[in-house]
Amino acid sequence: MNHRVVITGIGIYSCLGENLEEVSKSLYAGKSGIVFDQVRKDFGFRSALTGMVQEPDLKPFLSRRQRLGMHQPAIYAYMSTKEAMEMARLDIDFLETTETGIIFGNDSTAASVVEAHDKAREKFDTTLIGSGAIFQNMNSTVNMNLSTIFKLKGINFTLSAACASGSHSIGMGYIMIRQGLQERVICGGAQEINIAAMCSFDGLGTFSVNETDPTKASRPFDRDRDGLVPSGGAATVILESYEAAVKRGATILAEVIGYGFSSNGDHISNPSMDGQVRSLNMALKQADIKVGEVDYINAHATSTPVGDSSEAKAIGEVFGGKVPVSSTKSMTGHECWMAGASEVVYSMLMMQQSFIAPNINFENPDDESAKINIIAKTKEQKIDCFLSNSFGFGGTNSTLIIRKV
Amino acid sequence: MNETLVTMELGDIIEETRDFLSEEFEVNRNLILPENSLKDTLDLDSLDYVDLVVLIEENLNIKVTGEDFKDIVTFGDFYKLVQKKLSL
Question: Which residue ranges does the record assign to the Ketosynthase family 3 (KS3) domain (chain A) (predicted)?
């Protein structure tokens, strides 16, 4: 028997704000979270642009032992998950006595590894790295930390799928619940923003160098885009079976109705329209809806010349040119491992408040983006059903379709 | 060997130790008394002994190992270890 899978909590900690309310305002206002970071320039980055996310002080919330194993990915993920838990009205007493899982998207822990390695090299004694580093260094850091902090008793693993990690984490939670293997799964994505995490990506020359005007640098689908802007933070989406949510009297925010995925099986960094189309069609088939029922598409579009064109073609091929499309990366930059989850949260906020957040900086279309309906200014519109795309290095593609209940 | 520490009295070292232990382990400084249990007062688990080694190196600039803690029960025992390491 297949179970319906619903969303009962969302949380966000990003360069657009440190909670849902702040982020909603930023999305509606079309406010960019991109800044010029002198630290990157001084380090030798080709581009000093980044989404800027502050590190919160967790001392008021967590013990020393709980904090020791946390670096940026886990710290940010704690903040977004705390907010999502509050929204879902889940507390530790309940979680400790029921079976709740966690599948979180994360694909790096670069800064903590560098710090630990530097310390060992300096002291010539690995003990002096300290006891927390190993739990910061492993890619499963978010899962390790959050599952122990929140006393989770269900499925527990990290999902690494490059820039589609957050999206696949929701997809995998959806499958677990749909098949009756779990009643409740905490999903999401986390992304560190430090220079260690981003220096090798910067080295590829794919970042925008429009440093004179940071808020204009990320311009997905625009003719004059010159690359992406890295960003980060964390987003959390709590999934439950419909029955479990009703049983505990939770407020149901929306339902996940489709999860499509594919692998390009081709170039390690170049996108593939064919792979994207297969992911879109799989999600639509599973959702059992017609293309006209999708009211909004939150595009993956990162502001790279090749990537955006490929996605515009894929959307045009499957949906034609009518459905409204925007890339919130125009405001956030590319939140990488977190993006698939954060963009579901952004789209959920739009659905709840009946507006489409703008694809800012979309001033002139190119040949491909001219064929789809890109929303450049905030638009008041009822959204009953949205689709969110995420594509990553290695040719991993993920598509989620979410509908009001 | 830390020259400043060598010239310090044991009493000063004890006060400094109470400072960094209470700050790191977030416990009331007044509970760090020679007769009290190190493990119970600081609520130490097995991982925390690694951090004790780090703290002692950082604050007192002396090398200890996990093995050194084998026979230490009270803060008093711990101060004796520091004394021995500093040859006070």
Answer: 2-404
